[in-house]
Design brief:
Mean pLDDT: 93
Strand order of the largest sheet: 7-6-5-8-9
Bound molecules: N-carbamoyl-L-aspartate
Number of helices: 12
Largest sheet: 5 strands, parallel
Radius of gyration: 19 Å
Distance between the termini: 39 Å
Length: about 325
């Protein structure tokens, strides 16, 4: 059976983004993803200019509620909000000091009572962001919930790939490492699959995860086979904070079998693009020489695209409350 043609361009008469929140890639149509990437494209030059300021969110309050540690994602949302003129407030709570259940809902109600115009949430529990979204009056953006989804990461990865490769459809993308614990992998599987890439999950058997088949990816437990002919190789960190037992014998052995080295990368296409969402563990999942290879590594560019993608998302999600015509 031939697959239906990929509808990645906004069909005529269809609203480009009919969602109140951005909770995951799973809820997005291919053309909504493409349209969001096009929106983000417009912010890249602004961010490269001297005066990086657009006041469309002036007077609006953005709360970044981070119940889990983060450096780049929090900073990226803070910068994105400020460049759009919003009043940005960061609330960071160490995961250990937050109790589950009622406390989470109480927090949601507390945030809501301060009349934010948009809330960005990171939380260690899958589904927690959705729970909060149901309780508040403003749009909610998921900045990573447990192992579930991290939609803006997948969007920035897609933007990086699209700009470097000119397309996503038809590319072979190998996502390698701790798939089991990775929300980045889950969001990427869905986004890249939806835009027509051939996606591989490459991991030791203990770190593949039971749900990957459902996400339409090809599973490889041998790294060399998984890298063979890949256009893009995306490395993931061993998420030790989410591991309750021994999933890998030792980091040395892990690097030996699954670490990305220049020798191993030779199995991929000569113009392969190397990516990593960060934070990187050099010498564990990726060799320093590969991470710093400016010809092939797009790791810094991913961070740059992150700000543009988040500006696009903040703009789009607040259009209805700002009374933008058609929203
Ligand atoms: C990722 C995350 O937090 O999900 N990092 C990020 O957002 N840049 C991946 C990770 O923590 O390994």
């Amino acid at each position: 059976m031939t697959p239906p043609p990929l509808q990645s361009v906004l069909p005529e008469g269809v609203h480009p983004f009919p969602h109140r929140h951005l909770l995951g890639i799973a809820e997005l149509k291919p053309w909504e993803i493409t349209w969001l990437l096009d929106q983000a494209e417009g912010w890249i030059e602004v961010n490269r200019g001297l005066r990086k300021r657009d006041d469309r969110l002036a007077g609006l309050t953005l709360i970044n509620a981070f119940f889990e540690n983060s450096t780049r994602t929090l900073l990226s949302f803070e910068i994105a909000g400020k460049r759009l003129g919003a009043d940005v407030v960061n609330m960071t709570v160490a995961a250990s000091s937050v109790k589950k259940g009622e406390t989470l809902l109480d927090t949601a109600l507390t945030l809501n009572a301060m009349h934010p115009d948009i809330i960005v949430i990171r939380h260690g529990e899958s589904g927690a962001v959705q729970l909060i979204a149901e309780k508040v009056d403003c749009p909610v953006l998921n900045a990573g919930d447990g192992r579930h989804e991290h939609p803006t990461q997948a969007l920035l990865d897609a933007l990086t790939i699209r700009r470097r490769k000119g397309r996503i459809e038809g590319l072979t993308v190998a996502i390698c490492g701790d798939i089991l614990h990775s929300r980045v992998a889950r969001s990427n599987f869905q986004l890249l699959g939806s835009l027509g890439a051939k996606v591989r999950a490459v991991a030791p058997p203990t770190l593949v995860g039971a749900d990957v088949d459902r996400l339409g990816v090809d599973v490889y437990t041998d790294m060399d086979a998984g890298l063979d002919g890949a256009d893009v190789v995306m490395m993931l960190r061993l998420q030790r904070e989410r591991m309750s037992g021994a999933y890998v014998p030792s980091t040395r052995e892990y690097f030996h079998f699954y670490g990305l080295t220049a020798a191993r990368l030779a199995a991929a296409k000569p113009d392969v693009l190397v990516m990593h969402p960060g934070p990187m563990n050099r010498g564990v999942e990726i060799d320093t020489a590969v991470a710093d290879d400016i010809a092939r590594s797009a790791i810094s560019e991913q961070v740059e695209m992150g700000v543009a993608v988040r500006m696009a998302c903040l703009d789009v999600l607040t259009r209805r409350s700002r009374g933008v015509p058609g929203w």
